[in-house]
From TrEMBL:
CDD domains found in the cross-reference section: mlta_B (cd14668), mltA_like_LT_A (cd14485)
A UniProt-annotated Pfam family: MltA
Protein's name in the database: peptidoglycan lytic exotransglycosylase
Family matches, as InterPro entries: 3D_dom, MltA, MltA_B, RlpA-like_sf
Catalytic activity: Exolytic cleavage of the (1->4)-beta-glycosidic linkage between N-acetylmuramic acid (MurNAc) and N-acetylglucosamine (GlcNAc) residues in peptidoglycan, from either the reducing or the non-reducing ends of the peptidoglycan chains, with concomitant formation of a 1,6-anhydrobond in the MurNAc residue
GO biological process, one term: peptidoglycan turnover
Keywords from the named record: Cell wall biogenesis/degradation, Lyase
Organism: Desulfonauticus submarinus
An MF annotation (GO) of this entry: hydrolase activity, hydrolyzing O-glycosyl compounds
Residues of the Lytic transglycosylase MltA domain: 127-284
EC number assigned by the record: 4.2.2.n1
Amino acid sequence: MKKKLFFLICCVSIFACTFKSPPPEINLSLYQKKILFKKVSRQFIASRDQLINALNYQIDFLIKQNPNKIVLNRGTLTCTYGDLLYTALSLMDNIDLLWENITEFSRLFNVYVLSTDTLLTGYYEPWLEANYVKTEEYKYPIYGLPDDLKVVDLGKFHPRFKGQRLYYRILGDKIEPYFSREEIDNGALEGRGLEIAWVKDKVKLFFLHIQGSGRLIFPDGTVKHVLFAGKNGRQYVSLGRVLVKKGLLKAEKVNLKTIFHTLEMHPELVDDLMWANPSYVFFKLADKGPFGCISQPLTPWVSVASDNSFLPWGSIVIGEGELPLQTDVSQKFASIFLAQDTGGAIVKDHLDLFCGSGDKAEFIAGHLKDRIKLYLILRKNE
């Protein structure tokens, strides 16, 4: 068993890759900070209360971390969990200055340019009609976490694998990759009592996997949150890219609405198209949610998912870009985001904004694909 695991680790090392760090960080001058914070005060996409709620959750997470642990070390910029906690507490205490005294607010914080070309996308909570039992109408299962899914932290074997995990199952005396989406859809998990609910629409179920959480409405009107519980560890493949590669969509036309429409127009291809993404998500039912990777509730228009190696969870940033409001209509924004979540498709300099639930959230999440300027906020040490 150990030899097989070592072999798999060696294979991972062959295919492991790194990405280039962004340009050296720039610490904005007081004048530049005042201009930026003034934009934020006018173009903030969340409410003050939403920001305060998100900060409270951020503080609850950060206060439990080792304050001396370095979480970002890039160029001349180094910060610890303690720095992030100090920043969150200071922002909480002085948030009203953002609207009342920009100059004083600007003096309290350092602002660093992390990137001028970060990809910002969006995600949301889809609603699905569901039932606790399988029927002719509700026949597509939502699976809970299987007990034969094993995960090993490769960083324990060698520092070069830090942050990488191997997902597998044991078959006799062999280690095998966990079942793919195609294998699971074709019955690999049937008969094990793993179904937590059944839904009507397999395409909407597929997008529940992409979003990572959602809400289920049952025939009696009961609503339950369905939350991320785990994944099979297979590589995530974007359905939009698959459709473009097959000539079914043009790259510039890819969004949630056009993907749904394309699948409706080609029902005979739906299974094969979805199986092109072997990644599979397992869920759990809950009364509250959704929760981010920091085990705190997500806040619409404030919480973002990030790659921890690019933007550490617990960081506070300003994003500056454009938000789609309706077809061919967008609005400029400069808004404060808190890194509180992650996702299988969120790698390198890519952030994913949690948009909440409802029609507005679905539209924006489905159409948001902007290259934004990204600034890190840190409290000045006094």
